[in-house]
Amino acid sequence: MRFGFFDDKNREYVITRPQTPWPWINYLGNDDFFSLVSNTGGGYSFFKDPRFRRITRFRYNNVPIDDNGKYFYINDNGTVWSPGWKPVKTELDQYECRHGLGYTKIAGTKNNLSAEVTYFVPLDIPVEIQRVKLTNRSTEKKSFKLFSFVEWNLWNALDDMTNFQRNYNIGEVEVEDSAIYHKTEYRERRNHYAFYSANRKMDGFDTDRKSFVGLYNSYADPDVVRNGKSKNSVVHGWSPIASHSFEIELNAGEETELIFVLGYVENKTEEKWETKQVINKAKAKALIQKFRYSEQVEAELKKLKNYWTELLSNYQVKSHDERLDRMVNIWNQYQNMVTFNMSRSASYFESGIGRGMGFRDSNQDLIGFVHLIPEKARERILDLAATQLEDGGAWHQYQPLTKKGNAEIGGNFNDDPLWLILSTTQYIKETGDFPILEEMVPFNNDETKAQSLLDHLNRSFLHVVNNLGPHGLPLIGRADWNDCLNLNCFSTNPDESYQTTGNKKGGVAESVMIAGMFVLYGNDYAELLNYLDKANEAEKVLAEVEKMKNAISKYGWDGKWFLRAYDFFGKKIGSNENEEGRIFIESNGFCTMAEIGVERGWPQQALDSVKKHLDCEYGIVLNNPPYTEYDLSKGEITSYPEGYKENAGIFCHNNPWIMIGETTAGNGDRAFEYYSKICPSYLEEISDLHRTEPYVYAQMIAGKDAWKPGEAKNSWLTGTAAWNFFAVSQYILGIKPEYDGLIVNPCIPKEWDGFSVQRKFRGTEYRIEVTNPNHVSKGLKELWIDGKKIVGNVIPVQKKVVCNVKVVLG
User: Fold this and answer.
1) What is the pLDDT of residues 778-790, one digit of tens each?
2) Identified catalytic residue from 483, 567, 615, 705
3) Is 361 a catalytic residue?
């Protein structure tokens, strides 16, 4: 069942029914100010950090779901409604939500009165704009009331949910003209405040939630809206809000427009006050003036759309399949931007309170983002490297506000260091920016311990070499990529975290997945060193890689697939010897990408085993058979019911590893089959089952052993986005950046006649036309560059505006 449709021309997903199977959201903002907005107007805003600079309040796990948001209420002579349906839930005569790139338009009509709200965050300006258009579609004059509403939360969002004895006493606001200023805690250690303004004289206001809603009412039936009159309440403690009211008259066919600005301001300490207890509003008023008129708003909205047009022009595909094209050209790249900005910190599944920017997460997110804004990718690499520890390990997360390591989570996740090699080599291949390797970067944010980024990469590599177990395989630490495979964290206490327990010291648990990573990214690191004319160092790296390949060959192959790990007691995990959890996706993905044992046919055997044991209608499950009881020695993975999350769920993040493995083996049909099974644009028809947005990837889909196979959870913030774009763009479509140019090596379904790609790379636009006259999956027969036939499959870096490339498979 569908709940909307793709509007590819306008790059929008159009939702036509407000009661979607889950709130379908969008992200606004690309720099410091961010907002989440759902298809019914729910969501919240924050500046840089969703925990420490949360601007508006949101209630997770609420009933009804998706409360609260940035709401507008209309009282049309006693008929109360909202343009996004919620929170009032009055049945609308017409409803539409258009989620676009960095903006959302929600429109509703009731009794011939139409209201359209456009939400967006302008480029490089710390505000959210809400433009409200009201149209009288009747043949008579209409008089009605419009009310705005946001609830403030500009303090520690964790403290907001716990420290009521303080928070019920500190709420403070100022009201001036048509702006409401939230200055809670500003009198003490804060140098920042928020504001919510309107561009016309308001007829009333409220800043106290109890006064506006009523103590025993809900957002669906606020006392002020129902009675049609603001109380002009000024909050003193309790729960501060901001609500404007307007009395509006429209003649038949007449339209009017109001512009609301939700903003954030920081002042220098010496410039905090105008007079005693009166905040310095100069910056806020300057921001408000930027958006007083429709022309100003329209200009910024146009600038935002042009920004995305330019960004997306860096990679565009044209194939026979509109579902593939819209995903690659629009939505996958858009999601890559969001995951790069947010890591895993703020969504409708992540509260933004307990997690910062992930080290492994952000390094992976970068591989799907680097072609969009390389300079931001460069900054992120250096930020991540600065949280690395001197032994090559890393803080598992850092806080976006401070960029310091998150001590609450700690480190000792032993896959973390290798991801820095992946992100850095991919960045340099995209940009040719070798000087980044000479940047001096601190360890643990200590500038006195700064070394070159290249030194950081070396320590990342050596962290594995220096942490090997009895089989010569990498020690897993608290966990490798799979945070729920906790082989050194034996937990019987339901009140503690599995990952941060780490209570089995001196553990010998080993990871075959990290071993495969070490071979894959060790080879990448050696390639980089050779390119830097550091042949001796590269030779040493390759010697360690060879040792690891031998260890995998001796202890990591199970006969038909690659083992997953050895546990604390040295027992096999992911082996045919196991009754449950006999085969896992992660080690088979990395070892086939690394082509370990290719001379013996192991990658193809492993891929065939994945197909036989892990594949299902909705994607590849993480492991099988699922665990049916809690196993102390394996940790959180066994705590989930069968078919969910890491216990045999379809963890979409690692499906692309198998796709890439299949392309490496030349199996284009199978690679694309896996791609289409989890690609959201191919799942639109089963939205009622899938539940999450049909325009972005989900982290997890319930597996074949689940109670409800095919149901997705945790959309938007997932490494699935970057890895799927990486897999489809560089391995299936096969246009892959390298140090000296672009490698062209597609691996596609045999039935395809071909496709074309427009790819910007180091200042040149490459227009690549691929034809497949013999209907093969892989192999180049001819490569032509600007009419000249060349040998091989590498397009050298061109110094021209446009380069035309013809590729013939065969």
Assistant:
1) 999 999 999 999 9
2) 483
3) no
